[in-house]
Amino acid sequence: MVTTSTSLSSSPSRFRPARFVAYLVAGILLMLAGGVVWFYSVARSALPQLDGRLRVAGLSAPVTVARDARGAPTIDATAFDDLFFAQGYVTAQDRLFQMDGIRRAAAGELAEVFGAKLVEHDRQQRILGLRVVARTTIETLSPENRSHFEAYARGVNAYIKAHQDRLPLEFRVLRYSPRPWTPEDSALIGVQMVEDLSTSPRHALEREKILAKLGPELTADLFVNSSWHDRPPTISRPSLDQEIKGGDQNDDEDEDDDSGADSSVTVLTPLSDIAAPPRLPELFFDERPLVLGSNNWVISGTHTVSGKPLLSNDMHLGHQMPNLWYEGHLRCGNFDVAGVTLPGYPYVIVGHNQRIAWGFTNLGPAIEDVYVETFNPAGQYLTPDGWKQPEHRREVIRVKGKPDVIADVVLTRHGPIVTDMVPGETRKLALRWTLYEGIRTPFFAVDSAQKWEDFRRAFSELDAPGQNVAYADVDGNIGYQATGKIPIRAAGDGSLPENGSDNAHEWVGYVPFDKLPNVFNPPSGIIATANGRITPAGYRYSLSTEWEAPWRTSRIYRVLESGRKFSAADMLGLETDVYSELDRFFADRFVYGVDHAKNPSARAKAAAEIMRQWDGRMIENLAAPTIAVRARRELMRLLLEPRLGTAPKDPHQLETTLSWKSYRWMMSTVWLENVVEHQPKRWMPQAYANYDELLTAAVQAAVDTNPAQDSPAPQNLDSWRWGDFNPVEIQHPIFDKVPLLCRWSGPGLRPQSGSEYTVKAVSRSHGPSERMTVELANLDQSTLNLVTGEAGNLFSPYGLDQWKAWYEGFTFTWPFSPLAVEKARAHQLVLEPER
Q1: Phi/psi of residue 324, each to 5°?
Q2: For the segment 553-599, what is each residue's pLDDT rounded down to a tens digit?
């Protein structure tokens, strides 16, 4: 008998699980390693050349680009066309994907890249017609400005053409290439900023509903537009031996008698499918969160250590990654200007040149009106001259992977019909907007200005967005000028929708520039704005129906009027100040209410004790700010809910259902202060015997642990942290979805001090977009920092290098003179013409 044995261990058909798993894991690791290597190499390949020499088609002469330790470029050219060509080229080196994202968001061209989820956004932008406005802007530019815009576009395109195989990583992930840049695209970037800084016309529609529900008296209370805290910049507060003086104001303007203030201060799927687009404009007719405002101030040498003016500016805008502004320094002969620039747009927007400095806050003028148009079955609309046929504009929205979407934009004499942008609205609503009459571009003249007269002449052409502009110069002068093209109406002020069929509420002109508030060298030596009311009592024109609440402005003046001599470091301390006058006021009232209520709960009394010990600073690791803010919000609910109704559970119904949450007004806290301070019977809810009981109920609701609440409170009140309640979140719009990468693509979610009503005005999605102080005694001692950094590339050393300074409240010296720029130089690139 022959026995044949087969060794299983040597059989080729033998399945070995351990070895298979090892091979599989090795293969996966190899693929992952290859993917990481590919990803890293692609991202690195898009990093800009910073040193050496580079031949670039389109230049007429060499241009030098010197970058400092934070990657900020100083561009030196011998001709303006070469200067702005190089500005376009260098900005594209660092921000090309952001530039493309902003122009697509503005024009309504995002669905082409991100798919059907962006169709509604694109439809809104097509109805608003921002690209049409941009086209008109370019057509009306002066020959000089047009040549600069064209040079800038050529510079951007030179970069795109030379880097088709080394585009930023985002283009690779999303599988598209940017089309060539045009002057129209640059104008579109500017128009987008106007949209961002315009107040929502939806407020007029909500006010209309509230008026119908509550009647004129209560509605007038709610929509208050002035406060005893207001500090118009043209009115100097008197000293004990000085009468009020109004500075360089018009004869028809009366002067305010502002109350005194305490001067005691403390300055302390495939990736492309899950990717989100760059930061979008908020829906124009949506109940969007109110954008936090900005701060600027200027003080004369009387108040400074150096004896020359200090000018500070921190513009508060929506966060994005990379941050909005791009620092730059432009030099061409006697033209020498530095500051923050807008990616995709030529010139310096805010900063200083050799002689003058300037800074912005948003004025918020009433430049949009809603008209209710009457249409007949034939599609005509009624005018004072009879029925008229509207115009139509056909918009084709490209959608990734889907058929095109056609939008028919109906245009009346007032503007486009925007009814489709207002959920639940059936009337034909037309939007009139000063933007549709064209906007001028003054920034080359601004950058070139050498004295107050030049400065005012240049800003007389800033049609939109209307700004409060602070001014200082090396001769020791300070000033302020309101800007913008602001309508004069035959009747009304734009705060309610009007009948479009007659001329009763038509625009009959614009406020003359010389009549806009302005002041030069006021006796006080102090000028400040923070989006609050700028018009003194008796001012002839209606500029805005919705000023920002006065808390930041009041705090800034209180600090600056303390009698101290200030340095640039002190200005940073004020920019990062987190004292809330508003919330300290309400905390005191809540404590008083609990102390005098009949039977407050132990929990309400514990909350009152925490607030009693609080000094009013919105510090991230404290419990008191959270309690005070929650109680203030609950107080508003308790006052409004019985009159306007309960908010629906479904957030989608909030847009169409009138409720207490329908009331959104930038001075809502002034209304609330008025109610608590004066305790009018007309606002007392029937459920409460007096205001002490009402205030106690608000505290109780704020600290209630009922799990049915939307945000139940932790049991231990001392464990509350304000920074967790009001954090900051900044992340890359695409890479935040990628594990591991999200840790390096943005700061992420962090606790923060400050609130929307502190000088350091912050929320989860908004905050200071830059912090600048110009020292007119020595421009090289000026300071500037951005939020995250200059670069948009994930692996650039300049992408997040400024975050720590922004977050922790320190800053960087800002070199300006040729010697200081040379001393600070870390890189130098010479762009040379192609021969």
Answers
A1: -65, -50
A2: 999 999 999 999 999 999 999 999 999 999 999 999 999 999 999 99
